[in-house]
Amino acid sequence: MQRSQGNSTVGFIGLGVMGKSMAGHLLKAGYPLIVYNRTKAKARELLGEGAVWADSADELAVKCQVIITMIGNPKDVEAIYFGTEGLIENAQEGTYLIDMTTSSPKLAVQIGQAAKAKGLYAIDAPVSGGEGGARAASLTIMAGGDEAAFNAVLPILKQMGNNIVLQGPCGAGQHTKMCNQIAVAASMLGVCEAMAYAKKSVLDPKRVLQSIETGTAGSWVMSNLAPRMLVGDFSPGFHIKHFIKDMRIALESAEAMGLETPALKTALKLYQELADQGEGDSGTLALFKSYCRC
Amino acid sequence: MQRSQGNSTVGFIGLGVMGKSMAGHLLKAGYPLIVYNRTKAKARELLGEGAVWADSADELAVKCQVIITMIGNPKDVEAIYFGTEGLIENAQEGTYLIDMTTSSPKLAVQIGQAAKAKGLYAIDAPVSGGEGGARAASLTIMAGGDEAAFNAVLPILKQMGNNIVLQGPCGAGQHTKMCNQIAVAASMLGVCEAMAYAKKSVLDPKRVLQSIETGTAGSWVMSNLAPRMLVGDFSPGFHIKHFIKDMRIALESAEAMGLETPALKTALKLYQELADQGEGDSGTLALFKSYCRC
Fold first, then answer.
1. Residues of chain A whose pLDDT is less than 70?
2. Exposure winner among A22, B108, B151, B184, fewest CB in 10 A?
């Protein structure tokens, strides 16, 4: 039966920088919280605050009415959801499975079908807003799944984000995140090209921003990342290696639809070159280095 | 002698959609205005409001203390400024020559040098903000030239724009406009790719905008042009044929500096294909058609 999940025990799998903050908000909101993570040490703070440890995903699965996953990549998601020790096999009937990892739309559809066959409700709900958004509970959450299931878990999602939209059936959340990453990838190219042009010509790039950031050329990337690029601060908000993972999913998905995405392809190629040069752990704004080397 | 140009007679050459509005603001502000345009009919309204007609650029040149040009492309600019009938040959010593056309930075430097040799002050001051910005006198004006000359004509520029920055010596205004166009070109690619992806997948592109336009993927292009693309409104704010002209200047200029600009190149190629298909007079947002044909 679908109902509000106000008193549900929530399971949270994946306590990286994002997941730790997100799970913490649920705990503060009063949800009984069971956590599992590959590295137990990352759970220490949450356990101190009242979360309960599970030794495995299947142990967690049997005890929770809502299970959230926020893990590395589609391969990890697949491993957690499928197989005899997976969530789908072990969750109780009626459980809500919310994958907040940025992962493959195709996999989200597969999880949705497998979940439905077992009487479970699957929702893909990737986020944008980064570490800051996770800490501030101001994430954008892009959801895919049945409307009734979405409404049932909405109070839980609201603990973590403030722009929460059901985009369509299972997979639609991941597809929406891909739209986001495609637009970000092109913005990164444009801002780096424009700033590199400024730097190579007679201009003061910071002064150029005064002229162009409020008009047609303006973007979140320009206003927020260009100033950091220009002072050589390439510390990660979002890691290049993760962006590459996302762009690969987007490209694969676009190709499956027969859609040409030349800007995405260009960005992926340049980022892959950076990763090959050891920049995988740098922030995405290190793309500026590629341009300045020309 | 450099002084405030409050009572100067201003000459305005180029009364297209942009120039007509811009010249009109000067007239309303009380500047004596002499106008010249290839097609006289376009001057009718301004002449009715008190502007004086000149039959040629050189006739205008001898009568004005400030001359503004807002014309088609670098070739036209070159023709108006150089030669025996050009502004540089015919303007009185101490005249300010302000080219507001989006034109070549290299040409702006040449004009600056030629002007200086004749005791004239050249300023390149291309704009962004389009027809709406010209009408509302809210243009962004990116200037290049000597600081004293810039300050002298600033009261005049303020009649037409509200974000007016001196970016550096002659050519710096044009270079800054190129930075702007490079960033816009990439934004166009990103927004079209993201919206085409949305359309081809299970998504409702308008709902996707709700999720992504306020975050890291957000841009002026996304907020202002994507909604129009999605309803098939490709009417021009800015014509494809003019954008191609700007991108060619940017690419030529980048290549001269040894800077690779893959996103700019991709955008120019796609826009050139559209122009070849007869879309030169469509708005730049018609790029979306290229993606939807895939």
1. 1-6, 294
2. B151
Do B158 and B245 lie in a common domain? no
> What is the CATH classification number for the domain harbouring A270?
1.10.1040.10
Q: How far apart are CA A194 and CA A205, in angstroms?
A: 9
A 113-132 residues with CB < 8 A to B: 128-130
- pLDDT tens digits along B243-284: 999 999 999 999 999 999 999 999 999 999 999 999 999 999
Placement of tokens 């009568």 in the chain:
B63
CATH number, domain with residue A40: 3.40.50.720
B190/A184 CB distance under 8 A: yes
**Domain ranges, residue A48:** 10-169
Closest residue in B to A143 (Cα) is: B211
Residues A196 and A158 placed together within one structural domain of the fold: no
Query: What part of A 180-239 touches B (C-beta under 8 Å)?
Result: 180-187, 189-191, 193-198, 200-204, 207-208, 210-212, 214-222, 224
C-alpha distance from B63 to closest chain A C-alpha (Å): 32
Compute the distance between CA of residue A123 and CA of residue A144 in angstroms, rounded to an integer: 6
Question: In this predicted structure, what is the pLDDT of residue A107?
Answer: 98
- Flag if A182 and B169 touch (Cβ within 8 Å): no
Using the beta-carbon criterion (under 8 Å), do A294 and B263 form an inter-chain contact? no
**Residue in B165, B169, B266 nearest the CB of A262:** B266
- The residues of B assigned a catalytic role are 177
Name the band, by pLDDT with cuts 50, 70 and 90, for residue B1. very low
B140 touches chain A (CB under 8 A): yes
Q: Are residues B264 and B162 located together in one domain of the fold?
A: no
Of the three residues B169, B191, B210, the one that is the final residue of a domain is B169
Q: Rounded to a whole number, what is the distance in Å from the CA of B154 to chain A's nearest CA? A: 15
- φ/ψ of residue B133, rounded to 5: -65, -35
Asked if B272 reaches chain A (Cβ–Cβ under 8 Å), the answer is: no
Predicted pLDDT of residue B118: 98
* Model pLDDT, residue A293: 75
Residues A247 and A163 in one domain: no
pLDDT of residue B5: 53
Last residue of a domain, one of A169, A191, A206: A169
As given in the structure block, the two tokens for residue B260 are 């690779």
Q: Which residues pair with B121 in a beta bridge?
A: B96
Q: Is residue A162 part of a domain?
A: yes
Q: Is residue B70 part of a domain?
A: yes
The proportion of chain A whose per-residue pLDDT surpasses 70, expressed as a percent, equals 98
Burial state string for A266-283 with b = 16 or more CB within 10 A and e = fewer than 16: bbbebbeebbeeebbebb
Query: How far does the CA of residue B180 sit from the closest CA of chain A (Å)?
Result: 6
Instruction: Tell me, yes or no, whether A131 and A243 share the same domain.
Output: no
User: Nearest residue on chain A to B293, judged by CA atoms?
Assistant: A259
The answer to whether residues A211 and A163 belong to one domain is no
- As for the ipTM of the complex, it is 0.95
Q: How far apart are CA A79 and CA A73, in angstroms?
A: 10
Q: How far B41 CA sits from the closest chain A CA (Å)? A: 31
For residue B278, which amino acid is it?
A: G
CA distance A12 to A70: 8
Contact state of A219 with B195 under an 8 Å Cβ cutoff: no
My answer on whether A118 and A186 are in the same domain is no
Tens of pLDDT, residue by residue over B50-86, are 999 999 999 999 999 999 999 989 999 999 999 999 9
Same domain, A137 and A186: no
Q: Which is more confident, B52 or B2?
A: B52
Q: What are all long-range contacts of A80-85, with beta carbons under 8 Å and residues at least 24 apart?
A: A80/A13, A81/A111, A81/A114, A82/A114, A85/A56, A85/A57, A85/A58
